[in-house]
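Key idea: predict the complex, not the pieces.
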Amino acid sequence: MAYDKFTILRSSAVPLPIENVDTDQIIPARFLKATKREGFGDNLFRDWRYNNDNTPKKDFILNNPIYSGKILVGGKNFGSGSSREHAAWAIYDYGFRAVVSSFFADIFKGNALNIGILPVTVSPEFLEKIFKAIEADPKTEIEISLPDQTITIVATGAKESFVINGYKKHNMINGFDDIDYLQAMKDEIKSFPAKSIY
Amino acid sequence: MSNMPSTLFDKVWDPHVVRKIEDGPDVFFIDRHFIHEVTSPVAFLGLESRNIKVMFADRTFATADHNTPTINQHLPVEDPLSANQLKALELNSAKYNISHWGLNNPKNGIVHVVGPENGITLPGMTIVCGDSHTSTHGAFGAIAFGIGTSEVEMVLSSQCIMQPKPKKMRITINGKLGRGVVAKDVPLFILSQISASGATGYFIEFAGEVFENMSMEGRMTVCNLSIEMGARGGMVAPDETTFAYLKGREKAPKGDAWDKALAYWKTLKSDADAKFDMELSFHANDIEPQITYGTNPGLGTGITKNIPLSTAVKDGGASYKKSLEYMGFAENEKLIGKKVDYVFLGSCTNGRIEDFRAFASIVKGRKKADNITAWLVPGSHIVESQIKEEGILDILNEAGFSLRQPGCSACLAMNDDKIPAGKYAVSTSNRNFEGRQGPGARTLLASPLVAAAAAVTGIVTDPRDLM
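Result:
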């Protein structure tokens, strides 16, 4: 099933300069009780975003109207912990299409790619530059070009390349997904177990 | 097959590659797939919306665990959302002819406990589940790791996922573990040395005397926590301990099939000159009972130590300070003597019979401290029966503890087993993230021995003082 195509994304960004943002923070387990993929964005960063009485916490970045955009910028080891794809769904549902960090946890990265969020790994120095640029001007724009595999701070022109494998890049640019690919090679897979002990 | 020396990991990974995609992932065949109620419903919806079928229903096993109550399991589940998820798992399993061990089934329990104890998990297999602690099954020399829901849909529909082959790391620990130092302390120690992201991008092989001398249950605890190091999973080469554990298990091979499997399993070890992308080694003498003080599993230390100064920690910046602030701790404070409110024994990390034996060995002849609320949650009905048969329940009851019913429980606090805000829990589970065990809950991860010592003294206590 296709998802949104991803080519060039130019947007302001929301900074979250915290390390080890785990998937329990992105979406706490008590909000995983749905049997459909709906409304997870409402509980994105729930316990950082809301007080116990459900009033917004004023000092949390998503509650600050100065910051907005389709790019989330996080500290290193973003998405560690649980394999819950709900974390990626919540980020997507909230409106983000790319997450930038100097380091992603493996499972989160795979989940993001599988639903059409681009995880962009940058150097720690470039990450720092992005945080500084947003601090100086919350509306500053970041441009991510998937075809060129580059990320640019538009105002300063500071640019860095990022890595993505050719297969995933092609999929994201075209909105293709892995399930369709696997369905297309079903016969080859069906005969595979005959070669195995199990 | 090439004659290049290869690792255990290569020996299991390579024969499962259906197709190599150039500049892309491997199409990777999955032998066993576990599902549970939380991460599978949307995958089944996906199958329906695409109008595709399950390819090999007999390779998938369903059990309900994440979102189940741990008391009164005979009654209808009160929370309508939880009940709905459990019902969805039951209906989806029935519709696609998938084995389903739901609530009250005598085989029910935590997915990573019931897989091994029923012999579904075998050496040389590839195993996935929509749960990061699937790494547990690596204890058998299987490649086992957690996947997302999109991948659950892939496995249901094609028995494959698309995975780039990870890099290989070997962690060798020789020597003999000291008194009061158990399996859980080993990965907590490794985490304190390499951090919660130290093995990201790698698959770990645990090697050396410490792991060779460990029981299967201990090895499961170690591999369980490999994901907390950032690794996709960890594994231990199968040996006589593995084979003895498996022999006679319900779904393990029997007769000629056993002999054939055994011959294959014996080939599953890294060649002497196999190359790893990274090698680390530690010594057993340096490991004392461990406890965590921060909000990721890498922030732990020996129980007799003080909380490190931020200047002494690799990532001692703002995130470290935020972490200590959440915990209500300060740099350089002693851990021993800190007040504890809750004790949780259970989870896929430490919810097996050996964990209950260890806990009972400390509380025997003592009494639960008055300030402690203790939740003791077996990993499965089979573990629960063992606890009763071995007389452990009597020891626990005499010391003022009671037993709950199997499930993931307070490890992730999806059900009602939530640690209240601000309270301290010594927990045998796997994650001390902010709010993991309940909004505002403060978790100190430790072994069943440390948990038991806290349960009878009401404070963080070195279990060696009670042995």
